[in-house]
User: Fold this.
Amino acid sequence: MSATQDGSLSVFSAQDGTGVPEGLVVHLRDKKTGLRVATVDTFRKVTDPEGIFPDFQLVSEPLKPAALGIYALEVGSEADPASCGDFDYRLRSVVSKVDAADGVSLDNLKTTVSADVTTLDPRTGASAPLKNAKVRLTADRTSQEATTDAQGHLSAPFTFRGTENHTDVRVDVLDTPDIKAGGRTETARAVRQKAEIVLDPESRKIKARYGSTAKLTGQAVRIAADGTRKPVPAGTPMLADLTGEPKTTADGRFERQLLMSRSGPVKTTWAGGKSPWLHYVIASTEAEVVEVSYFADVKATVDATGVKFTGGLAHRPLSQAPTLLEVQYSADGKTDWKTRHVFTVDFASARFDQTLPGVGESDGYWRLRYAAAPSMQGSVTEPVRLTRTATAFTYFNAAPEPVRKGQTFTIKGTLQHETPAKPYEGQTVQFYLQPVGSQDYVYRGEAKTGADGKFVQTFTADETGAWIVRYGDSDGKHFNAESRRDDLTVNP
Assistant:
């Protein structure tokens, strides 16, 4: 709900034509006395003339309260009213015949602003000069106050700063308890001057990593009417960068912060690409972006299957081409890095999960390396020290031998770990038999090591073959171990 210039009330439906109750009644309440002073129950319905859209507008006849002021709009009963906004029935300020003298320039920033300021009485429609009233003159980044004369006429000097993005001047009547604010804008056309933007030598060609911040510096100067070169005014806005619109200093110097995202020319000019005070000029920087890669969330572990790397490799800007990564080992983590494995990573997914089996080193440093292409910087992960403890069967024997079929025999052994070796308690060892004439080992059972690392298991003899015992890493920190072969002959 809103009030129009002539004092009518306008009530708008929702886009689907709902939201306005049938038989709408609107009340005006005097905010000073708290009493309802008028009721509006007659509206004219305005609909889409082509009948395409269902929304509509209800418009009342102009309201004419007895006194000027701001009234509350309500619907509902006196006991349970619902507020719908305000009805502004104050004198309306009208600003007309606004003029700002043309010809301002950076050599002459002064102009004269003139206007006629009147009030309109909504009760009678009568207009009267707004005498000796305060008005505000506003331009981009600049404002000042002025006063109308006894005839409601305004004629006031106005000084620009020379750093504005436009030279519009607005004349506004200030809002008061008796007068509703109003205003109008006029443009003081400026005479543009020739200018130059001179980049510092190191800002004419830059090379930086993708995503980094590069600094461009230089000086902006103007050619005054007498042909002399002068710095542009302090605060002249330059083309926007990461910090917003950088401003020049008193000597015309500037600094721009750029995000390096692509190679090619980068222009430096005025904010928004234009200035009302200066002719359009550009200074060009040739930018070369170095593509970058980096590892993310990399984890390295060692277990019974080998050394395992998981994580991701990012490439900026994004690349769809697959690339090769190297798994490297060094005994001291500083020198003599050797590539032990190479695998492919697809940049589209950028994730990897790779295991390097059969690692023989019990202690050492591991890393991933991406050599990259000549146009970008490669990456390596931080070296990670991965240790695995040596394990060994120091004793293993099957007895008695030979043995008759159906009789029992016993396998004994000792499992040790670390250096120097000590008993490895509580570990599961598994027994395998390779029958004569077979290439395969057949699982036959398991046992647990005691506090002294020893184990014992009894079997029933059924066929001749070679027996071994195996230990499989159980905590990811030990090497696997396998005993010597012990041939056992089984007689009929």
In short: The first strand starts at residue 2 and ends at 3. The radius of gyration is 45 Å. DSSP finds no helices and 43 strands in the chain.
